[in-house]
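Hi R.,

Here are the chain sequences for the assembly we discussed:
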Amino acid sequence: MEQAMQENALAVQDGQEVVVHMQNIGFSYAQNHLFNHLDLEIRRGNIYGLLGKNGAGKTTLLKILSGQLFIEEGETKVLEENPQKRTPSLLSEIFYLPEEFPLPKMKASEYLAMRSPFYPKFDHEKFNQYCSEFDIDLNQRLDQMSLGQKKKVLLSFGLATNTALLILDEPTNGLDIPSKRQFRQTVASAMTEQRTFIISTHQVRDMENLIDPIIILHDGKVIFNDTVESVNEKYVLSLTTEQPKADEGMYTEKVLGGWMVLSERTDDREGKPLDLETLFNVIVEQSKGSAGGVK
Amino acid sequence: MQFNTHSPIYMQIAEYIHDLILSNVWEDGQRIPSVRDMAMELEVNPNTVIRTYSLLQEEGTLENQRGIGYFTAKDARTLVLQKRREHFLKRELPSLFETMERLGLTMKDLQQYADNKEKDDEIEPQEE
Amino acid sequence: MNRFSALVKREVKTSQKDLFTYGLVIVLVMFASETLQSVFARYAGVPFPAESYNEMFPSFLLLGGFIISSLMFSEDMFGKNTQHDWLMLPATNLEKFLSKALLMIVAYPIVLVVLFFLISVVTEPIQLIIFGNPMAMFNPFRDGDFGFLLAQYWVWTSVFLLGGTYFRKAHFIKTVLAVGVITLALGALGLLFSRIVFAIKFGASMPVSDAMFYLSPVNLSRALSPLKVFSVIAQIFYYAVLPIFCLVTAFFRVEEVQATDAV
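And here is the predicted structure of the full complex:
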């Protein structure tokens, strides 16, 4: 299945320029090996979702490809450059929104005046538009804002920088319910063929319909990097009331009113597509059973 | 719009657009929202909307005028109506008959239901 | 250049509150010391010292400058939540480093001189009116050792800038300790060196009393005259090689700095 999926991914994504290329990455914290021979390819014009369990290394991966952490082994190329060099030409094409961050003690408008000169393609009109969509008062002091409000300021700023690559680490953390909706709308409207989003998240439901393709990080490797559709074309979830036999289906899960069984899609078999949560569970579960991924 | 988990999102969006055309919210030959605006309204990945639009373009419901945007086809409504009728007759009707058979209902009961509904509609014509 | 000035503006803007507080402290300290001295001069008959500005200036230049220098990189390089902002700022590592280093090496002494002068311009007339003290403006060139002072500042602020990039925490204290340890080590080496030199010259078993004779001023200068070359070398080393080495090393630290921890 893995190879088939990769071929399919190539067919779907062919022609889109590779913006991030990571090969054979090795990285560890002190004695703790985090990544071992990790490979990753990211193509322009998509909103990638980076999923992984706690401690899988999502933030580390994002920090590596933005040049904040240096790898011990392998090669990373972002927009044809080595991110570790931190050249202005590359940095002005990357915007990184961290999960948590303090902002300087000043008004949002002062922050804008201080920070925007670094981004040659900064669009002030768009910034004002995003801020008004998010209900942000530019005269309010940043240090008096809640985490959610600060995130919205920085997100508006990041979208207005017009960088090729936007890295958002847990962007919906700290956002209230209406803001999550605004977040999805704003990201959807800010998306262009020239941009690439990489969004790491635990809260799959916040972004179910926004992120695609999906990257799953598990056991120091990228075990999945493909569109949801490519899985749905071949596999289908169905609900049965009888407990499935051990060898039936590739993945089963007990749910309310029966069992969910994942099996290969055949023409006569009606079923529903995988939601992201199930997709994640299936992929992670299968990678445990057989080292080679989903079989 | 609320999405369910029964079919892929791009299919659900296609059905949503069919509904818009059937209910005349979108008229034949009308310009429709851009991919970006649609993605924003539905809070979905713009690539998903592109997929839906090209699917609908293939079946003839939508037309893409390069550089201007997407339009509904001149005969969009007829096309969708035809498609929906076909779907109803081929897919929904058989299962309806299956259920009727299981419950011991006949065409007579169906006729009676239709007559009653007509009467009700005369009293409360607004209700749909 | 545009980017560089944006970097400098960012430095000033993000620390304007702290800088303002620091400036205010200087103003208050100077004003208080002037007033106290005036009061003493008037009522206790203690002669009024004319050089109080020149006495206070070095301590603010050196101590204040070294503390600020060692804190200059703290947040941006090692703050767990703050470092990403600096690391991701689109500018070269060299620009980022120089924006901070030049602010401390060049701008800080200039601003401090101007501030002291302004304080004296405001304070002195007040003192004159209230206490009848003579006007004594701040004049950094009065004592003629201003150049020497600036040279010391240049050398040691470079050391503290290196300390600021080298140590992740407690930059100032650790730099002071490190300098102390290195000085002790060098002193020990020097002692050893001179012991060897003297042993070669006078024989290892010369009694201390005889050595004292040779160390009398007349003999010493004669004995040390071959060492003049060393003195020049030492000065070049102290005023040029040491600070430049420190700055270059500090720059490499900036280039190599990474995010503290992530997962």
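The two ends of chain A are 6 Å apart (CA to CA). Chain A has a mean pLDDT of 85.

Let me know if anything looks off.

Best,
T.
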